[in-house]
Design a protein that fits this description.
The complex is a heterodimer of chains A (467) and B (131). Chain A has 21 helices and no strands. Chain A is mainly alpha-helical and 467 residues long. Chain A has one domain. In chain A, helix 2 crosses helix 8, helix 8 runs antiparallel to helix 9 and helix 16 crosses helix 21. The longest helix of chain A has 30 residues. Chain A starts with a helix and ends in a 7-residue tail after the last helix. Chain B is α/β, with parallel strands linked by helices. Chain B has a 5-stranded mixed sheet with strand order 2-1-3-5-4. In chain B, a hairpin with a 2-residue loop joins strand 4 and strand 5. Chain B is elongated, with a radius of gyration of 23 Å. The termini of chain B are far apart. The chains are: A mainly alpha (467), B alpha/beta (131). At the A-B interface, helix 5 and helix 18 of A face helix 1, helix 2, helix 3, helix 5 and strand 2 of B.
Chain lengths: 467, 131
Amino acid sequence: MQNAILVTACILVTGFAGWGTLLLISGRKQFNDISFFEKIGLSCLFGFGVISIQMFIMSLFKIGFTKFNILIPWAVAGAGFVLAHKRKQIPVPGIARERDLSPLRGNEIALICLIAFQALYNFFRALIKPIEAYDAVAIYGLKSKMIYLSGTVSGNFFQSLASNFYGAHPDYPLLIPLSETWFYTFIGKFDDLLVKAIFPIFYLSFILVFYAALKRITQSRGFSLLFTFALASVKQFSDYSTISYAELALGAYFAISLIYLYLWMRNRGNSSFLNISLIASLLCLWTKNEGTLLALMILFIFFFYIAMNIRKIGKTEILHFLIYALVVLVTIMSWSAFKNHHALVNENFNLSMVSVKDFIQNLNRIPAIIYEYQKQFFGFKKWNIVWILFIILLLKERETALSGDTKYVTLVFFLFGLGYALIYIFSTVEIRFFTQTTGSRFLLHILPVTIFWMGVVANKGKLIENL
Amino acid sequence: MKKSVIPIVFIIWLVLWINFIARDFYKHGNFTRYKILARSNYEGKHAYTYGKHFYEFLKFAKNNIPEDAHYEFAGIEDLSLDSRRGIYYLYPRLKSGNPDYLLVYDAVRARKNGFKLHAKLDERRFVLRRH
């Protein structure tokens, strides 16, 4: 019981930090336009992100990690916010958006029950076992234990990782390890069983955001629930919410970044969409190395959108793009400089491996890459029939997929295929081993975007009605 | 895509989903595992997950070498899941190529020059110390 209270309190406090961040980047008016489920989901996802960044910055200034040290800025900001609102007698932002209060229909109740069952099952599977999967102990769990026991990201943390723990990837960004450390710090003990609650929380939070975002576009509760169930029930997706890996979080941030950029394209007056997309892009960078590639894909799509609409858009949109690009690129370069300073190099893939000679020499890897992807696409046990439906939709609804603003989302599949194929081509890891050990995990990065895209295309093509 | 296809697709999806959950529960023996894990406490969950025999050894090693010790495994394959779990569990003790302690697991003949017996759990699981 005490554990349940501690976990709940940690999630609420983390959500509070995310809520504050969301309010800050949205502004009061646009914050009220975000639906309740979106706020809950984004708050949790952003909460872990911003607290982990805060902890990293604290460690740069040699401030130790205590509950008090971590929470004091949020407590001050929260108190200041409430006081300011009391003085000006402005209502505290809440749930002012028009809500769909029509009674739930039978099929909607059934879908909600199925999603709830899957989510509860994930919580059960996550919390029944301690951290034990390979990368979960070798990378994330180990780092969080090291940081928690030393009370900070110590000056020799990266060197110690590099010299004492082969394969612990000292160059990986720290969102997951620091989120776990934050959890231990909050509950006041090292508990690698309870900490796993973070991962189904990521899952549930993202499911809420996904539903809300799709409902914004389709205006249909039943339709959005159907596609949310599709995402929630993909075995690979739900399994990864139980084993303490970073893949699901990365897929979630990437999807949020792209989805909200798409929402902004549809409604350029709402700058909060763009700010949400930007924060999610930064959190991609902060979750895994592949996040850099994903953030650059988002940036390219944004650039492509600006280039295609240069005559229709105003200076404000161009300025928005420039700020977005500047923030993403400065963050990439800062993290890169930090890694260079600490001589942190990824042994599987780094830019020194990229050359024309290697590209030509390794082109014979393409059949192995294609073989792995086709194996995944027809791997029902992990993916149900999602990839088959995706291919059918892409072929049948190609006109819809390549028209209007939807084409910018469609572009991501080309960029993703190309980007990840290049990693495989340039990497020094034996190709069959590399594709077998990473193929299904890498596809998780794009899965949420894929199902979102399927929802958008099915809605535009009016494939599903009366839901 | 004809609209009549959609319910069929949904039913196929649902059937596969139910099938995978049921398979997870029964075919892979998870139902029994979950029952045991649900009844176990924190220690018991670790022991069951890591393997009782191995966890017992790790706990024994942890209790018998100091926190700042450098150790090496004998009888545990390098980079294996057991090795990873062991390194994680034993931290802040560090695995090292130049160890003070040799943690011998399931390897009766693992004797090394310059090391003597430090603590013994049983004939196949013991700790050697550099002398």
